[in-house]
Amino acid sequence: MLNHCQTGKNHETRPENMKPRTRIKICGLTREQDVDAAVAVGADAIGFVLYPKSPRHVTPARAAALARRLPPLVTPVLLFVNETAASAQAASALVPGATLQFHGDETPAECAAIAQACGRPYWRAARIPNDIPGAIAAGGAAGFDLLKFAADYASAQALLLDAHVAGYGGGGKSFNWSRLPTNVAAHLVLSGGLTPANVGDGIAELRQRGLSLAVDVSSGVEATGPAGQPLKGIKSAEKMAAFVAAVRQADA
Ligand SMILES: O=C(O)c1ccccc1N[C@@H]1O[C@H](COP(=O)(O)O)[C@@H](O)[C@H]1O
């Protein structure tokens, strides 16, 4: 079988006209009923935020209890921001089969060392600034060189593309997808401000740009309070279903 280098294409080799199934991670869950609803609508991965400053933070023990509800083939993902190796290792030991997501300032060496110590694959978040006119780097958007980032984090299972926001992530903000390079030698996970309304456009824009594409959503599937305020950490079953339906539509 030809690989992507031999074909000159940057996506998985597949029959003509067949779109790959875009895998879906739903992140920032804190409640049993939301985990069950996410699984029921077809999420492939469920993210638990182990960053104490996040409004969606759960303790490692709580993440482990929630992760025990997952059926086979649904992957728990543990999200860390600048966590110590010892804490990350202790948390991952509680959640068998979890993938690690590094969403802070972790260096390539730190990511590789922690992932190796945990014996788990890791995703590295690329926090992409929004466009500043005249500041487009060779490899990407607004001074962010995604090609260099991919080379630096070559041991990552995937690069997670997020908007650069205060608080490291979970800001519900998107970035300019069209500025990204077209041929990234990495598996990509698009995140940052995704919603049922825009995820199809994001998939269409990025599907061909990496080795594969998955999507990750948090804010865009959260419930709102009586005054319309976001309820961070509380998911809406209806919005999760609508998000998955929009992804399926994009893949059809
Ligand atoms: O969810 C958080 O609070 C969070 C905190 C610190 C780093 C990352 C965080 N979430 C991740 O951010 C992206 C984008 O989320 P959103 O859909 O824009 O809200 C996603 O990967 C979340 O898992």
Describe this structure in words.
It is an enzyme of class 5 (isomerase). It holds the Pfam family PRAI. One of its GO terms (molecular function) is phosphoribosylanthranilate isomerase activity. This is N-(5'-phosphoribosyl)anthranilate isomerase. Pathway: Amino-acid biosynthesis; L-tryptophan biosynthesis; L-tryptophan from chorismate: step 3/5. Strand 7 (187-190), helix 7 and strand 8 (212-217) form a beta-alpha-beta unit. The model is unreliable at 1-8 and 133-140 (pLDDT under 50). The protein has a single domain (20-251), classed as Aldolase class I (TIM Barrel, Alpha-Beta Barrel), CATH 3.20.20. It has helices spanning 4-7, 32-41, 60-67, 85-94, 108-118, 146-152, 199-206, 237-251, and strands at 23-27, 45-49, 75-80, 99-102, 122-128, 158-163, 187-190, 212-217, 222-224, 230-235. The protein has 252 residues and is of the alpha/beta class. It has an eight-stranded parallel β-barrel with strand order 1-2-3-4-5-6-7-8, surrounded by six helices. It has a two-stranded antiparallel sheet with strand order 9-10. The chain binds ligand LGQLAAA5. Residues 27-28, 47, 49, 51, 54, 56, 79, 81, 103, 160, 162, 167-172, 191-194, 216-220 line the site of ligand LGQLAAA5.
